[in-house]
Sequence to fold (320 residues):
Amino acid sequence: MNDTLLIIGACGQIGTELTLKLREKYGEKNIIATDIREGSKELMHSGIFEILNATDEEAIAIIVEKYQITQVYLMAAMLSVTAEKLPNKAWNLNINSLLYILNLAKDKKIKKVFWPSSIAVFGHSTPKHNTPQETITEPTTVYGISKLAGERWCAYYQDKYDVDVKSIRYPGIISWKANPGGGTTDYAIEIFHKALKEKKYDCFLSPETRLPMMYMDDAIKATIELMSTKKTTNFTSYNISAIDFTPQEIATEIQKHIPNFNINYKPDFRQKIADSWPSSVDDTKAKKDWNWTHEFDLKIMTIEMLKNLKTRFNSSLENV
Ligand code: SER
Fold:
């Protein structure tokens, strides 16, 4: 590969696994990992790492110049729950970092950008089931507002400046390597941790709250596949779908492996966030444009999560 990729937010939940996969695929010297703080041992030992604040425009420009970066994956973001608590900080991080990167692409300092959007761009007025690619987007969360604005900025830069930017509306992402932080869909990860460690979980969403979800391996596959397709002419942040389930359904699946696991429901302010999002999304356009398909269903994902987390808890990796 002739490209050099910069990952901003490489130590986060998605950034960690994306960086590891890209290094495996394209060679570690071509993948520059950056984050505001150091990450897991596995990540830190797998290639080049630099401390980088995604809201520091000058620092980003220096790194891009230093490593002759050609593609940027901007994974740093403040998720839905944290963003409600820190609205200004969330807006600054989620939007200004994007504008810095889009400007680098506009000025031809870099060639290509990946920027993640989210199911949070949808709101109460959006059709809830099988949510179309193009539909009403009236988000009610700070996170959703920033993601929708980001989508429109990406479309603007593509249209006006011919910037090559690609994007996916990630559903809730389930993974075991790096802990998530500050998301509403994170209950579906916490539940595995608690099931293994305590055999019980107090869920902050109600039993019937259905949300679109995806196992990390599928999310990484989607990201790399989309970035490998040729330039898309009309900007869109793609709906991608894999599985959808409720807290009750995932608890039942876990109980097949841990029969004495108990779940209690104590919905809090996060219920309102979840209620504003779709229960499933229609990804026909992603399937058509770049042959997107998912591999992991609820059953296989549950087996993978329990197996890998058990190994992680039993190993020294847990202490990093
Ligand atoms: N996982 C995100 C959140 O819950 C949604 O994209 O905030």
